[in-house]
Amino acid sequence: MDAHASDTLPSDDLGERLTRSIARIYRRLRAERTSGELGDAAMSVLGHLHRYGPTTLTALSEHERVTAASMSQTVNRLVGLGYVVRETDPADGRRVLFTPTPDGHRVAGDARARRHAWLDAQLAERTPEERAALAEAARVLWEMAEG
Amino acid sequence: MDAHASDTLPSDDLGERLTRSIARIYRRLRAERTSGELGDAAMSVLGHLHRYGPTTLTALSEHERVTAASMSQTVNRLVGLGYVVRETDPADGRRVLFTPTPDGHRVAGDARARRHAWLDAQLAERTPEERAALAEAARVLWEMAEG
DNA sequence: TATTGTTATACTCTATAACTATA
DNA sequence: TATAGTTATAGAGTATAACAATA
User: Fold this and answer.
1) Of A52, A126, A138, the CB nearest to B21
2) What predicted TM-score, i.e. pTM, was given to this entire model?
3) What's the CA–C1' distance between B113 and D17, in Å?
4) Residue B123 main-chain phi, psi, to 5 deg
5) pLDDT confidence of B66, banded at 50, 70, 90?
């Protein structure tokens, strides 16, 4: 294939550069993240439960910025695959707590390792200054996503 | 809702922080980017054509990192909506060039302005040092996505 | 034969609307 | 009434497999 103008980063405003870079690296990471069985969203949810433990449906949906109805279907798939168990909160019968099974923890751990292999290799090739900029950007982007 | 551990940025390794921040800001930007008519992927393709002009199917699919079959359906929607025209390359009958219609250019321009409103407001609240880190990160992430 | 693109089919992800159950 | 969650349904986005057209 020919070289295209599309393969160069636009040099005008910061907002444009950021959105395009974020979309581009996200698509790249998505390919590393997903396994055969689990898509991007389900893997993200399983990773959250693996890391933080029992979480309600509403909390999951707010964290992932999707509707509760959408999240309900995503966790249903995880339950169906045997990676997550659904339990009613003893303290509030309306709430449901989702928790990974041992299988779920294993899959989440494996996926995290696999997903990080590519990124860590990329980071190792960067200068300390570049890594510092990425660390700072990670913090700032996280805060911006809150707002 | 309660405060959750999920609302704090993990402080261990850079790779983990980056992937989580990128996924989080991507989901946030996606909500700003999509209009009623066009989803994330279609808007991204239209934006590419708006910016760079006539492009082949294969070039589009490689740039967006999806299969040619998937891209064929995405551009089909854009053609159906009257935002893109499909023309056979006179120099190579196998190739198809996609080009925005005037309507397509208008929609792409409007969407870009709308999408940037939120981000530019966020950026304006940051320090010059933070913006510099974001600019550097945008460059580095773009290069990493290539590899 | 190789390259370019399309169609058929299926799955994931998401949304809105309507619903049940608990507080 | 308000909150938490589910189900039904529809549409976007993606993938693989099978195919047609052109080089």
Assistant:
1) A138
2) 0.84
3) 40
4) -65, -35
5) very high
